[in-house]
Prior knowledge:
74% of the residues lie in helices and 0% in strands. By secondary structure, the chain is mostly helical. Helix 2 (26-37) runs antiparallel to helix 3 and helix 3 runs antiparallel to helix 4. The relative contact order is 0.13.
Amino acid sequence: MTIAKNLRGIFTNKKGEIIIGQWPNTPLILAIGSYLIKYLPFSIAGQFSFWGVLISLTYWSYLEIFYGDNTFRRILGVVVLVSQLIKVFNILF
Length: 93
């Protein structure tokens, strides 16, 4: 029973509601739009797409880490931030 209660605590917010996902907010909409731009037939579209997705997801993860509704959303923000940092690290080094 304690494990189930702890798992429930990860997904609940301060009001006691279970929240796993939410409608996309502005940074996620920008990330999706930037990702779709890479399919345009312009040469600059790929670069814009990469940086647009990177910046949008980094900002989204920052918001989730510091202002996320529950522990799950904060952990998800950390995972996304780490993945974006790995992308940048692979490009620079």
